[in-house]
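Lab notebook, bench 4. The sequencing result for the construct came back, and we need a structural model before the next group meeting so we can plan mutations. Quick request posted to the team channel:

Model the 3D structure of this chain.
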Amino acid sequence: MNEIWETNFGNNLYDFNNVFPVKSIQMAYCCFLFSSRKKLTQTNSLHGNIHSFSGKTGKTLFAREIRFFVALSLFFTISVINGFSQKVERVVSLAPSITENIYLLGAQDKLVGCTSYCKRAIADDVTQVGSVININVEKILALQPDVVLAVQLTKAQDIETLKKLGIRVELFSTPKSFDEICGQTREIGVLLGVENIAEQMFEKFNNQVDSLKGVCEDILPGLKMFFQIGADPVFTVLPNTYMNDFILFCGAENIADSMKHGTITRESVLVKNPDIIIVATMGGFGEKEKKIWSSYKGLNAAKNNRIYLVDSETSCSPTPNNFVKALSDIVQFVTTQ
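Done. Here's the predicted structure in token form:
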């Protein structure tokens, strides 16, 4: 499954409420304190000698309560620290790109659950727990994961259910640039304890991207590109998305650079008359779309035979290696005369 998400970048690194309910503890202690004072008053009343907390007995009991509260606070502070420092050994991934990142980081031995679209993990007999959108909460619970890595396509009520069951959930969203793709992968690396591997990878991928950018430096400015990622209706790559970096890094202009919504008519594309058209394969729909665009003989891209297909498995799945692979193909298209 290709992932083109419309969400905000990473949040909820740790759900503090999943560690312990702070308010409940505070309320419990207040009840304890009130109860102790009440017992003190009642006990001394029976002996005809009511003492306030300023008396000897009151001071003793109050000191005990303070010690109890300090011990209780220390216990839960240690619990929180342990929760944050807990080593992650069992991971459930709810998105193909997250699964690919886990393999990229060499941490696949920690993967115990995945979606029905995570081909590589399925081939390794990792337990399937549903699709990206619809998950089986019971299956996930049975896997006893240390953390579940999810995207905002997964139903919100299922995410909340997992949290209420005490399962740690890290929610990721669509990165808006190549830098954010790397940032998301780094975040996963930190969670899985392989941040050093992540840092080494980023240096390599950043060097490759810089090298590919350099290849396009001599391209004439003003080259107009249409990048199609959906059919029926026709859907285009928008600004402020990581896929727009494919266009920008080639030194080209996105014909949709003023659009806020991805749906576009064929008539609009013809009016903008792009010099290059790139179509994501989309499981067979790409070939059909290429033929349709090629039939418009007045279109610059059609006249110059500059309509290309790019693999949607790399271009539409946000991981650093996929981005570099797709960019390499697109640079080749752009530099081919």
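The chain has three domains: 19-85, 91-200, 216-335.
Will bring this to the meeting.
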